[in-house]
Amino acid sequence: MNPGDTRAFAAQRLVPVLNGKGSLSSLDAELASSAIKERDRGFVKALCFGVCRAHPRLDALASQLLRQPMKQRDTDIQALLLIGLYQILHMRVPPHAAVSETAGAARALGKPWATRVLNGCLRRFQRESVALQAKVDRDAPVALWHPNWLLLEFRDAWPDAWRAICEANNEAGPMTLRVNRRHASREAYLQRLETAGLDAAPCRFAEDGIQLETPCDVTQLPGFAEGDVSVQDESAQLCADLLTPALADKDRQRVLDACAAPGGKTAHLLERFEADLTALDVDPTRLQRVSSTLQRLGLEATLQAADASDPAADESWWDGQPFDAILLDAPCSGTGVIRRHPDIKLARRHSDVAELAALQARLLDALWPKLAPGGTLLYATCSVLPAENSAQIEAFLSRTPDAVADMPDDLDWGQAAGHGRQLLPTPAGHDGFFYARLRKRA
Is 382 one of the catalytic residues? Predict the structure, then answer.
């Protein structure tokens, strides 16, 4: 497959994302089943993720280069223009190759007329790059690579940190591992990585976490297929630490992971504690990923497909016995993990935040009666927006008399946020995450 076809594949994959009707979540599977050679798949992913990450700025530059906007039926050509700009600005592709191969990819899309348009736009950008960039960067959302509504949300929520949040979002996150302590210690696995020639260091906050200096394919990780290690961000690993007081050194506890897919936190809890765990998720397809994860790690849980926010669905999955602990890793805006899912910049709308907050409230209200007196509910999101985090928990506590905030006050990570704890994304560290631990009065 020639380079032009590789870029054409990336452009086609970006079309639904640019139109606000898709994401990059299935890109790996689509590449695996495509004719793209394995050695070229990393390049395609870099193009797709890079265009989404820098989209506000690339789109502004494209608008300066086009005489008139592309019609929707030609979104694939718009994608090629963004791909060309991204290569010139952010990749090591020789400029002449970025121009010629990107323009030539229009033929692979069956639109040879666009070759001249793309060639002209990209060559003009090469000539006028400095002036064009200076012009579009007068607009803060363009210069900071974020849609305006999201920029305003960050400024309102974090007046002293909003720029740092944007800058962290615009960098690819590090590759962080979670060692399966049922198999070996973190120190022992660090030695295995060193022997394999992979530079790594222990995470600062997560007890089982290791951060690689350079990301790699999981097939290069010693013992990955055998379940010795998993990929999971440091923020997400703190879930098990917060549930330790409720689950450690006790008889086998009944635990519910209410929004379990894809299964990382489910697996971590089972690696750490002897528990009778039910993994619940509304999407049966995504629940299959939980099953695959547990199978690789040699762990067991009861998997149930049902809507945890709908009490009418209780009979389909709940036996009526209360849980000693509940993990609610709630659906959210994902604004703390934009660096790992940059298509969020295109997929999310301002109206989504209120809709997600309403869903989170329904989940809290539906799950609380299923918690045993004296039990613990851990609420988590990968968001940095107060409406989904501190304000959500404040509202829940105000309407739930037997709920008590139980967040430790001696944590060395994150910052206080109402009755919870907020981590903001850091360039060389953890993702953005929020936790609030609640206890039901005995």
Answer: yes
